[in-house]
Amino acid sequence: MSNGLGGFLVSASIVAAGLGGVWAWPHLQDGGFRSLAAEAAGLYQRAEMRLRPALAALQTPPAMTGQPGVEPGAIAESLPPAGLSPVPPLRTEATVPAVEARCEGPESDADTAVIGDSVQLRIFESAALAAAPAPEGTEAPPTDIVFERLDLSGTYEVGTAGSVSLPAIGHVDVAGHGLSCIEALVSRAAFDLMRSRNSVSAAFAARPPVLVRGAVRSPGAHGYTPGLTVERVLAQAGALDDRDPAARVRLIALDARRSELDKTRIGLSLERMRIEAALNDRDTLPEDNPVIRAALTLLGRERLASERAALVSEIEASRLRRAQTEATLADLAARIDAARRQRDLARTQMAYHAERHDQQSEMLQSGLVTDSRLNDTAVRAMDAERILLEKEDLLFRLQAERRAAEQDAELARVDRIKALTAELRQVSAALDAADSEFDTVVAELELYEKDSLRLTVTIERPVDGARARTLAARADTLVRPGDLVTVSAGQADDRDLADAADPVPSPLIRSALKE
């Protein structure tokens, strides 16, 4: 045992000496022995101050009462300094945010959230500290710590279901509620989840535009402002009024545009008639067509004569190309027939010389002909075979040339049809656009030319992402963001078309308050 204990002590001494050397070596390098001595003294003092209470408790025997004896200095050092008050605890109690009764259902105010709104929400959470000590006779209020929940604040869009989706809170129904109710509803939803005191600030970041169509000068999207009425929408979009001086100028411009479009339509119809005649290989235009009579009246004889001349030129060029192709093919056909006859003749001559050579070969064995005569016949047979090959090659080349000419003629015909078809398609598209604009101009002129222009306004108001409610509006009807306002001329029932039980009609809206 003594040997084991002694070995352990020796090992521990070696390890301690190594660690001491590791700790002392940097101080020796930096400041020498003085720095090492100062550092060791400071280390001893700190250790002695920390161990003093424990050493005193071990060295001083406990009193007869059984209480341990502690050095008074150790007690003074372990207690907090005098004069410091304890930190008051946090008050975590919170009450449910109050939500007014009007916020429990849809509000009647027009400036409420609708589908498509972008609502900016800022959510603040607060915690109250206990009141600090105060002089006698006074009461110090508690101190509130307020901080913004940046993880919850942001801009949210009202979806098709009429709600906004907040992180960690979920969906909160806000459609049909004003900003104050939105703040209360979001605050209650946040309290239900986190059980903390909070406050919410809401504002509209963006609102859907009001869409206007019908008998107005500026149809399209118009910005929404709070308190926007149908009368203001008509003033903003420019309701038609034939007594307005600007409307008189517009009337003159529309009449001129109608005349211009009429001429354009007749000209395009004449061009389409010419192209259709060219596609059908007709060189004349039908005289009994109403377009011809209208062209004579609006465009004059010169324009009609030019279209006829263009048609005749197109047909003549097509016929000339066709005649040239037919002449070329006829020439090739004659040359092919001649080459075929020459090939047949060469084939006959080759067969004759081949048979003659065979006969002379038999006669040579009988001694009736000589070798020179047989050789002469063989040479003639080879010449006949060479001529046959030349004639067949000529026939093949002529046949290939005829096929190429036929293909070129077919390609030319197809290209002509494609060009005429593309031109017809362009003319038809331009004619359709001119017809559509002409109808619009005529309809607007009819509205202008009425003695008493009466406008009827209907509003299509979205209910959700798939349904809309149709309302007939008065001049003072409030318009909401996202409404589709349709302005038309005619009689109106001016009531909620979705509610047939309402029998009370509303007065008509007249342009520029015309009575």
TrEMBL record:
Coiled coil: 322-349, 388-437
Key words, A-Z: Coiled coil
Protein name, UniProt field: Soluble ligand binding domain-containing protein
